[in-house]
Specification:
By secondary structure, the protein is of the alpha/beta class. The protein has four helices and twelve strands. The radius of gyration is 29 Å and the shape is elongated. The N and C termini lie far apart (about 95 Å).
């Protein structure tokens, strides 16, 4: 009996030591090194900005001519040799990166569609002398574009643009040369601060078929509405149009408007 009791005590002691050692080892594994930065600390934010400051070649994800960097975090520049070994890229998704169109000048010969949403952009960047000849679709929605000079080089840098989305910015005026986009067919600029004069600026746009200006500050239609050569669809929902006379340019005069649909809810 004494021998059995001694064996039992011996086993209990060893079991307790083994459990203590295992628990301590588990804590050592779970505890991060002292040099590791906390994800919520200010130092960690600085560290992340340093990591994502430059888009390096090894970070590129290309699938069927599509470049997707939307999930890589905030960056502010692209390495000069970033796309040297990449295949022909036609579609760019750079949402939430804070990279302007000018940062992708290496793709100016192949890029056809670009999305730069949610990037706090105020314009196209330093894009002088750069021409995206193949670019047909450009989405700049949900940014901080306020002044027209941020888009002044749009007609020269994207001469073949067909679809342009400027919605959800704080744009106060269209750039004066926007009507030089000879192939522009769709223009979406909802949720901005645009008015009657901005519609008049587009009267000579030769290919513009659809214009969406919902949630802006349009009080009346300009007298040149019948000068639009191709406009078929106009959406002015939730603007500041309060009287029927504000729409008189649609039916006054001798010329016939080509508009097929006009939306004026709100």
């Amino acid at each position: 009996t004494d021998v059995l009791f001694i064996c039992y005590c011996y086993l209990c002691l060893h079991t307790h030591i083994l459990f203590t050692f295992s628990f301590f080892f588990f804590l050592m594994i779970r505890r991060p090194p002292r040099s590791t930065l906390s994800s919520s600390s200010a130092a960690s934010d600085v560290y992340k900005r340093q990591v994502y400051r430059v888009l390096e070649r090894h970070m590129i994800r290309v699938w069927r001519h599509t470049l997707d960097i939307s999930g890589l975090g905030v960056m502010n520049e692209v390495a000069p040799d970033c796309f040297e070994d990449a295949p022909r890229i036609t579609w760019l998704d750079a949402d939430r990166t804070r990279l302007a169109l000018a940062e992708f000048r290496q793709l100016q010969c192949t890029l056809e569609q670009a999305s730069l949403r949610f990037s706090s952009l105020t314009g196209l960047g330093s894009i002088e002398g750069v021409c995206f000849e193949q670019l047909q679709l450009l989405d700049l929605s949900c940014n901080k574009i306020r002044f027209a000079d941020g888009l002044d080089n749009l007609s020269a840098s994207c001469p073949n643009l067909r679809f342009l989305d400027l919605s959800n910015n704080t744009l106060e005026a269209f750039p004066r040369n926007l009507d030089r986009l000879a192939k522009l067919q769709w223009l979406v600029a909802a949720w901005n601060r645009l008015g009657t004069a901005d519609i008049a600026l587009l009267a000579k746009a030769p290919s513009l078929e659809s214009l969406v200006l919902d949630h802006n500050r349009v009080k009346r239609l300009p007298g040149c509405m019948k000068s639009f050569p191709s406009l078929r669809f106009l959406s002015l929902n939730y603007n500041e149009i309060q009287a029927r006379s504000a729409l008189s340019p649609l039916w006054s005069g001798t010329a016939q408007t080509q508009l097929g649909v006009v939306l004026l809810w709100g």
